[in-house]
Amino acid sequence: MKKVLIVTYYWPPAGGPGVQRWLKFVKYLPEFGVEPIVYIPENPTYPLQDTKLRDEVPQGVTVLQKKITEPYAWASVFSKNKTKKISSGIIPNKRKQSFLERLMLWTRGNLFIPDARVLWVKPSVTYLQRYIKENGIDTVITTGPPHSLHLIGMHLKEKTGIRWVADFRDPWTTIGYHKALKLSDYAAQKHKDLERKVMQEADFLLVTSRTTQKEFEAITSKPIHVITNGYDVENVNRLPLDEKFSLAHIGSFLSERNPRILWKALSELIKEEPGFKEHFELKLIGATSQEVLETIEEFRLSPYVNNLGYVSHQEAVQQQRSSQVLLLVEIDSEETKSIIPGKLFEYMVSERPILAIGPEDADFAGIIKQTNTGVFALYDNKDLVKETLLSYYRLYLAQNLKVYPVGLQQYSRRNLTKQLADLLK
């Protein structure tokens, strides 16, 4: 059986989407003749935790740990809440940033390149170099963000000659929040130089979308393979459908994902459609930015909000399956059209219709259309959003609100892991 060393920052009890991809690959790789060995930080600073995910770590898997020094741990001394938000990707609106937030963003972008976990690189390379030689490891896989983990893979390849695969769950210099890091010209160039070097030194790259694949093809000639995120069989109790006409957003609701056309459409339906305001409920499950909450208040929708905050992955799956309609929103920019939110795949197998709002030519728009799981609208198409909500509402009243998906099996975690295992042979 081939031995593969997986270097990842996010691992249970980390919560959020970053942990799911490699937790599921590790679960299924042994079925396809690959033994995964996982390397993680011993004392990480996770902005979100979900202790129930520990139960999903396969029994008997080898997990190696090494201490990490993290600036986020130091910064939390001054403001734990601000540090937690920034480390989880919730960056305040530029006009509303405090001095401390501006300082933290500048420090993060200019002093810790490529990110705040870069101090883990040197001790990890020293430790893993010896482990690889002593344990017959065939391949090293690094997954980012944090992209500093790719530097571990790059140095291990330089020192041992081992095959190295770099997995990009998100892009590096073109991801939405990169521009908010207040980069100097020197820092911006250093990010690009490291990005290019990683892509040219890796034996091959993994990405999660076709758009990212095309973007990276302009940087490197190395093979780039698309393996999307996916869904797994979740053994959770299915709750009854909500009695209310619930529109549920699950996951981080960032300031940049603030669709005013949605809030306007909802406010109009409340005024115009008989019975809508008595039936409607907006469920917010996960961290929601203050700017989003203020906009909801601006459109007088606050009385309809059920803000559940962050919940375990298990409870999130239950909420997905019991909500009437699922809301998926991505930032409206050229940089984000490659982002396929991990929750999309869980949404698709929840058997609930999806209302998605995002940028033109978004990769996930095609997936929703191909699988017949919902409706995708651009940020300037309020009429489509309103018509879709009204259609869903009338089907809800008729007790006939459901979807008829097709072709979902290709996105199962087991099938995706087989694709990965085939690449590793």
From TrEMBL:
Domain called Glycosyltransferase subfamily 4-like N-terminal: residue spans: 110-234
InterPro entries with a match to the protein in the record: Glyco_trans_4-like_N
GO molecular function: glycosyltransferase activity
Record Pfam families: Glyco_transf_4 (PF13439)
Domain of life: Bacteria
Keywords assigned by UniProt, alphabetized: Transferase
CDD domains assigned to the protein according to its UniProt record, in alphabetical order: GT4_WbuB-like
Full protein name: Glycosyltransferase family 4 protein
The organism of origin for this protein: Flavobacterium supellecticarium
Native organism taxonomy: Bacteria, Pseudomonadati, Bacteroidota, Flavobacteriia, Flavobacteriales
